[in-house]
Design goal:
Layout (H helix, E strand, L loop, with lengths): L6 E5 L2 E5 L6 H13 L10 E4 L6 H13 L3 E4 L10 H24 L3 E4 L8 E4 L2 E4 L8 E4 L3 E7 L2 E4 L9 E6 L3 E4 L2 E3 L11 E7 L2 E7 L2
Parallel strand pairs: 2-3, 3-4, 5-7, 6-8, 7-9, 8-10, 9-11, 10-12
Antiparallel strand pairs: 1-2, 11-14, 12-13, 14-15
Helix pairs in contact: 1-2
Length: 220
């Protein structure tokens, strides 16, 4: 699959999506649906996804949020700061609304893992550890290490040590544009990269199947 028109920007607690001005909503939904259904880890479970507040109509936003929800993701509107502080009575209404929304989504956010976004290359000696999932917009160099309770997605070459599902989740997976790690672990399963790994030219996914870690090419 091609890279697509939708742009992704990593933020501290999730992802921000950007859309071409002239891209019809039907095409946006089609591209998002294809990426989510492909199993390529375009978004890992529990990712907080933000979309521009003023880009879509109310009905369109509802459709998009439902699409993400069915794939275990949280879709929120990008916050826009008001130029002038609203009156006191308006602020009180906003507080009540925020409180209601917070209560409504509390159970949802507790069930989903938080996404740690790393917008740089991890160099040798650097280590990352989190209870949730991790997405790296860069390489994982030899000597770098990632330990995640969820899945790991590397938008670059992975040559370090990666442990997904560290708390025992054998359904977690590891994805990289080029997967050639020193060692990978998923839950209690361990595998090493072959001495001369073959590169298919596609992104690769490692997951547990029949009691062992297997690696296969995938489409982003």
């Amino acid at each position: 699959m091609s890279e697509g028109k939708i742009k992704i920007k990593g933020e501290n607690d999730g992802l921000m999506l950007g859309f071409p001005v002239d891209m019809p909503f039907s095409e946006i939904m089609e591209e998002l649906g294809q990426k989510l259904e492909s199993g390529a880890g375009f978004f890992l479970r529990g990712t907080l996804v933000r979309v521009p507040r003023d880009r879509f109509a109310k009905e369109e936003l509802a459709q998009m949020q439902e699409l993400f929800r069915t794939h275990g993701l949280i879709c929120r509107l990008a916050k826009l700061e008001p130029a002038v502080p609203p009156p006191t009575h308006a602020r009180e209404k906003v507080k009540k609304h925020v409180s209601a929304v917070s209560q409504e989504t509390a159970a949802e956010t507790q069930e989903l893992q938080r996404m740690l976004v790393i917008d740089k290359t991890l160099r040798g000696g650097q280590a990352v550890e989190t209870e949730g999932s991790v997405i790296v917009f860069g390489n994982v160099n030899p000597g770098a290490q990632i330990t995640a309770g969820g899945s790991v997605d590397v938008r670059g070459t992975c040559r370090g040590v990666v442990h997904a599902g560290a708390a025992g989740d054998s359904t977690a997976f590891i994805i990289a544009d080029h997967l050639m790690p020193t060692q990978i672990r998923i839950a209690n399963y361990v595998a090493r990269s072959p001495d001369e790994p073959e590169y298919s030219g596609k992104a690769e996914r490692a997951y547990v199947k029949d009691g062992q870690i297997v690696i296969e090419p995938i489409e982003r």
